[in-house]
Design a protein that fits this description.
CATH superfamily: TonB-dependent receptor, beta-barrel domain
CATH class: Mainly Beta
Distance between the termini: 36 Å
Number of helices: 2
CATH architecture: Beta Barrel
Structural class: mainly beta
Shape: globular
Number of domains: 1
Radius of gyration: 25 Å
Length: 687
């Protein structure tokens, strides 16, 4: 494997060196062949093209593609299926919508977050709305919402479109993607398929990490567009995969997803009622975790299999109005429900989990109404605001609660139903500053978030084995920023400050007293959910400077801090200060670039505390990572890019990472280390 990696590195170096020497002097019209950082285009709104090559090369899942956006981190567990964090917030604080649909994983320990079922390169755009600054995209988006979307434009004549790519890289990495469509003004069909795989990678010291994965996906969309303003769409998708995990005693041997959806839209209806949108969907996730498919049980360990599943259904209906020339209004209703069940075997040799019935443990339902208004006044001023109310209900179906080590306790909340109505809203002011070619904005938002499955069902509370009495989280946040677009220099600054009442803190290693057989008191360690008051603040910066039409430099920076006011501690699971600086040469045919990623030491930790995605492990050292990329764009249809990530083969781990587990045949590390030197080559053909 090491020899193969060195050969690939040498080949890419040779190709990129010749690309610089053969470059023409034509001025560049292509913004970037390789994405190393994403810039802000509109207030609190970031959009990126997932079909564009990126550095570092991401796993083909929804989380890794977000790492090029300032403020995002990913909790590493292996080679794929990491959990995304934005501004130090994870889980249901950061919603993921796939063409407007909600999808939720099955594992109670976040082996399969929603992004594990997302295949980004088959989408046309990824849009991030920062903070509680929209009410149109479902409930609970205190950190923000990420929208993975496909274009729905109606062609004026018959059209064929194709996007295809292949990628090869170190550690046996290979990806294949095909996204093709045929459309007429009346009908269209679009299908996509992807396959991605990688063997175990090595860190900078050559230590092998249990991290191999295989992922595949298919998707099909049929649409009827009788005129320019009407669209009826039917869609379906299937995907599956397997992934090894370096942070736990089991791997994911099945990530099966089944999806069906229907959409209807009508635009330009009249002068007052402008549009109608309706959508309904079904998502089913069937997940398997075991210790025998991708690893071998050792010693006295039995083959163990666990098979959680989740069915999620939802719908949305929205009306768009134009009350006046300068005003737009969206009013709507959305609903979502999900049912979770599980079955497991502690010894597959005696009783297979496949032969056991599924047992439901929880059922969630939510219905929300919302209204969002935009008003343009004066030449360069705009107000945007919205209100939202959500009715939540959850039923606890667990007769017993697992305490670990094959022991259980009666569930005091068995059969109980909890209902609650929550409210959210925001108001934002935007203005254009012509004198400095800038846009300034400031907004305040309030968000009330209902506890999710991983907080209510997968955890205990301090006083009970059930956490069903965990309070809803209430966040109030102020956002402000400036976007500048000049001839040579462009960029943005985005800052935030929030207060969070009843922040849901996850705390591991909480000691509980219990009674053992014979009446003797014993102590056990539990992971609990508890409410605290907290605050956090931070900023993101992005900038690009063009020295001339061919040379440019880009900078991104992200910083977040926070405090647990109840316990007078730092807020845990906050990434350290991070900056990325790149230098790029691009003449519209050839490109070459260097990327320097600087990560500061993180000493602000609260060990054993965090969120549903992970808890603080300890202090992490600083790291400096250098990467190289090159590209060749001989025509509008062909793009070939290559890169070497972690060029100097540094050994490091992200601060936001899971702890390494003891896995036979692998060295245990404090955290799951990042990949060492990684070479990759990607070819794309599109029209």
């Amino acid at each position: 494997m090491i020899l193969r990696r060195k050969a690939l590195v040498a080949a890419i170096f040779s190709a990129s060196a010749s690309s610089v020497s053969m470059a023409s002097d034509a001025p560049s019209t292509v913004e970037e062949m390789v994405v190393t950082g994403v810039r802000t285009d509109a207030p609190l709104n970031v959009t990126t093209n997932p079909k564009a090559p990126r550095q570092p090369v991401p796993a083909h899942d929804g989380a890794d593609f977000l790492k090029t956006i300032p403020g995002f981190s990913v909790i590493r567990k292996g080679g794929a299926d990491g959990d995304p964090i934005f501004r130090g917030m994870a889980g249901s604080r950061l919603s993921m919508l796939v063409d407007g649909e909600t999808i939720l994983g099955g594992c109670g320990n976040r082996m399969d977050p929603p992004t594990a079922y997302i295949f980004p390169e088959t989408f046309d755009s990824i849009q991030v709305i920062k903070g509680p600054q929209s009410v149109q995209h479902g409930p609970g988006n205190s950190a923000g919402v990420v929208l993975f979307e496909r274009n729905q434009a109606r062609p004026q004549q018959q059209d064929v479109s194709v996007h295809s790519s292949v990628l090869a890289g170190s550690f046996g990495r290979h990806d294949e993607v095909l996204d093709a469509g045929f459309s007429t003004p009346e009908f269209s069909i679009r299908g996509s398929a992807s396959n991605a795989a990688q063997d175990n990678y090595e860190d900078g010291d050559g230590v092998e990490v249990h991290s191999q994965y295989r992922r595949w996906n298919t998707q099909l969309t049929l649409a009827w567009t009788p005129d320019d303003n009407t669209r009826l769409e039917l869609s379906g998708a299937r995907s599956d995969g397997e992934a090894a995990y370096a942070d736990r005693g089991v791997d994911g041997s099945k990530f099966a997803r089944e999806n069906y959806g229907v959409k209807f839209s009508r635009d330009n209806i009249g002068s007052f009622l402008k549009s109608i949108e309706a959508q309904a969907y079904y998502n089913y996730v069937d997940h398997v975790m075991d210790n025998y498919t991708l690893r071998t049980p050792t010693g006295m360990a039995n083959p163990v299999g666990m098979n959680p599943d989740r069915q999620t259904t939802g719908a949305r209906f929205a009306l768009g109005f134009v009350p006046s020339v300068n005003t737009d209004l969206v009013v709507g209703i959305d609903t979502q429900g999900n049912e979770h069940s599980n079955r497991s075997s502690m010894n597959q040799n005696k009783v297979r989990y496949q032969d056991l019935p599924r047992v439901a443990d929880a059922e969630f339902s939510q219905t929300g109404v919302f209204a969002e208004l935009g008003w343009n006044f004066g030449a360069d001023h705009r107000l945007v605001g919205g209100l939202r109310a959500d009715d939540w209900e959850v039923k606890d179906s667990r007769q017993a609660v697992s305490l670990g080590m094959m022991s259980t306790a009666p569930n005091p909340s068995y059969g109980q139903t909890r209902s609650e109505t929550l409210h959210s809203g925001f108001l934002r002011y935007e203005t254009g500053l012509e004198s400095i070619d800038s846009t300034f904005y400031a907004g305040i938002g309030h968000n009330e978030r209902f506890p999710d499955y991983w907080e209510l069902v997968s955890k205990e509370s301090a006083s009970s084995v059930s956490a069903m009495d965990t309070k809803s989280e209430k966040l109030t946040q102020f956002d402000t920023g400036l976007i500048y677009k000049g001839d040579k220099l462009s960029g943005s600054v985005s800052a935030f400050y929030n207060q969070i009442d009843d922040f849901i803190l996850i705390q591991s290693g909480f000691i509980k007293q219990s009674m053992a057989m014979g009446g003797m008191a014993t102590a056990r360690s539990a992971t609990i959910a508890r409410n605290v008051d907290a605050r956090s603040w931070g900023l993101e910066v992005d900038a690009m400077y063009r020295f001339n039409p061919r040379w440019r430099s880009e900078l991104t920076l992200a910083s977040v801090r926070g405090s647990n006011r109840t316990d007078d501690r730092t807020l845990p699971q906050l990434p350290p200060l991070e900056a990325r600086l790149s230098l790029q040469y691009d003449n519209n045919v050839w490109s070459a670039g260097l990327l320097w990623r600087a990560i500061a030491k993180q000493e602000r930790v609260d060990i054993g505390r965090g969120n549903i995605a992970g808890q603080d492990i300890g202090v992490t050292d600083s790291a400096n990572i250098l990467s190289f990329n090159a590209g060749w764009n001989p025509s509008e249809r062909v793009l070939v890019t290559a890169g070497i990530d972690n060029l100097l083969d540094k050994t490091y781990a992200e601060h936001i990472s899971r702890a390494g587990a003891a896995i036979p045949g692998f060295d245990q590390t404090t955290r799951v280390n990042e990949p060492g030197r990684t070479a990759w080559l990607k070819a794309q053909y599109s029209f």
